[in-house]
Amino acid sequence: MTHDDPGWPYSVQPSGWFQVAWSADLPVRGVIACRYFDADLVLFRDEQGRTRMLDAHCAHLGAHLGYGGKVEGNDIVCPFHGWRWSGDGRNTRIPYSTGPNRGQRLRTWLVREQDGVILAWHDPFGSEPSWEPPTLAEIVDDFSLDDCYAVQQTSRLWHDVRVRPQMVVENIVDAAHFQYVHSMPSIPTILGFRTEGPHFVVEHSFGGERGSAVRIHTSGLGLMVGVFGNEGGVTHVELQSTTPIERDRSDLRDSVWLRRSPTSAAEPSAGQRAALDRQLAQLGNDVVIWEYLSYRQKAPLTPEENKPYRALRQWAGQFYPETADV
Question: Which residues have C-beta within 8 Å of that of residue 70, sequence separation ≥ 6?
Answer without folding.
Answer: 29, 31, 76, 77, 79
